[in-house]
Write a structure and sequence with these properties.
Layout (H helix, E strand, L loop, with lengths): L1 E2 L6 H4 L10 H7 L7 E6 L2 E9 L9 E7 L8 H16 L8 E6 L7 H16 L2 E12 L13 E3 L4 H11 L6 H7 L4 H11 L12 E4 L5 E9 L4 E8 L8 H14 L6 E6 L3 H9 L3 E11 L1
Parallel strand pairs: 4-5, 10-11
Antiparallel strand pairs: 1-2, 2-3, 3-4, 5-12, 6-11, 6-12, 7-8, 8-9, 9-10
């Protein structure tokens, strides 16, 4: 069990199939990954398990564990045990002493519960994580809209303008945390104020997108009262709806559809090949809004965390 020896071992690391394999070379080149963050378990030179962390370019600390695989096609009865040993070993060597392990993320098929092979593979990996002390945090829907999807008409009841500054955005983000159905937002509120949680989200993620911020929109009523906001962006891989929210006092009026239509329009005008988004499985109103806007459920995501 060891980290890979640089880019020359990327083919070895990629012997186990996963949707992120095609991004690994670019991630290494850009600095989102490091060879010392990419671990393999070998048995007689055969790859039987692997693990890898991702972070933002230039960061010296792993941000998320997003690759954890065991050989599903092997007959090894101890393959889950191997995964546990690998993860324990890799975490001890890779993560700073005394630090809290980063969240785990796994992309899975949308029908993973109905497909026996997908379910077994997903549950095997979850078992590996659970045996290292992790627990299921949330399941999320991955959504996608392609250019041929019908366009929704622009709102005739709301006006849209850019944000005046980051302070205005953070204040609105803090407001929409009241009654949020988002698991990460709800978890933040158990440990910090809404204002602190909003600033953390802004500084930790939104402010790091390199796509133009003048595409971000605040929606208002005709007399200027804010209703909500939508943040069309690019995360370095795809055009995305990074945030779409209605203020608590204006929920229940269907404004989420107007916001999503505006954000989708802004990105579609850039002739992007796809627009992606995600929302918690339990956030049914937001999932339904995406479907009404022509987004389809093409995959899911499992997030697990350590207490």
């Amino acid at each position: 069990m060891r980290p890979i020896n640089g880019r020359e071992e990327l083919d070895l690391f990629s012997q186990l199939s996963y949707v992120l394999n095609g991004e690994l070379a670019d991630d290494l080149a850009i600095g989102r990954r490091r060879p010392e963050w990419m671990w393999v378990a070998l048995r007689n030179d055969r790859l039987v398990a692997r693990a890898a962390w991702w972070s933002r370019p230039g960061s010296g600390t792993p941000r998320i564990l997003d690759v954890l695989d065991i050989d599903d096609n092997a007959s090894d009865p101890d393959r889950v045990d191997i995964g546990v040993r690998l993860l324990h070993t890799a975490m001890a060597a890779t993560l700073p002493d005394g630090s809290h392990p980063p969240e785990y993320s796994r992309f899975i098929p949308p029908d993973w519960r109905e497909d026996p092979l997908s379910r077994q593979a997903t549950e095997n990996r979850m078992t590996v994580l659970e045996r290292t002390g992790a627990r299921l945090f949330v399941e999320r829907l991955r959504l996608e809209r392609l250019p041929e999807s019908p366009a929704r008409e622009s709102s005739k009841r709301l006006a849209f303008r850019p944000f005046s500054d980051a302070e205005e955005l953070v204040a609105l983000m803090a407001s929409v945390l009241d009654g949020t159905l988002d698991a990460h937002g709800r978890d933040d509120l158990t440990r910090m104020s809404a204002e602190e949680a909003a600033f953390k989200h802004y500084e930790g993620e939104l402010a790091r997108y390199t796509s133009p911020r003048d595409r971000w929109r605040i929606a208002t009523l005709p007399h200027g009262e804010p209703v909500g906001f939508v943040l069309p962006a690019h995360n370095g891989y795809n055009a995305i709806i990074a945030y779409n929210a209605v203020l608590p006092t204006h929920r229940g009026n269907g404004y989420v559809d107007d916001l999503l239509a505006e954000g989708t329009r802004v990105l579609a005008e850039q002739n992007v090949p796809r627009i992606r988004a995600s929302t918690d499985l339990g956030n049914v109103p937001m999932a339904n809004a995406f479907r009404r806007a022509g987004y389809v459920h093409f995959g899911s995501e499992i997030n697990m965390t350590w207490s």
